[in-house]
Amino acid sequence: MIKSLTFLKRKPGLSREEFLQHWKEKHGPLAAKVVPGLKKYVQCHPVPGMESDIDGIVELWWDSPESFQAFLTWRQSDAARELKEDEEKFVDTRQWTRFVAEEHLIVEK
Questions:
Q1: Would you say 53 and 95 are in contact if contact means Cβ atoms under 8 Å apart?
Q2: Mean per-residue pLDDT for 43-52?
Q3: Number of other residues whose CB lies within 10 A of the CB of residue 83
Q4: Is 84 helix (H, G, I), strand (E, B) or coil?
Q5: Are 38 and 60 within 8 A, CB to CB?
Q6: Is the pLDDT of residue 67 over 80?
Q7: Cα–Cα dist 18/10, whole Å
């Protein structure tokens, strides 16, 4: 299983609350509906009072590196237009960072 983590910053002029509300209530359900091959989607919102330089982390799970690559190809297609247009409403896409990983569980209690 492959996981991609994308570290997000909100668009200038949006409050953190506006960013998180749009992400959770509008963008999340849209992504869950349109992204092909997606196995799991998690939004990580900051704990109040423990904010950092980023406004959120999105975790996406894929069956394989090939299914993740298929997602990247899909993002460049016209089929991804609705999702990308929505991202432009609330995410500063010039500042996001994506990290693709394979998990190695060390301990689970």
A1: no
A2: 91
A3: 16
A4: helix
A5: yes
A6: yes
A7: 9
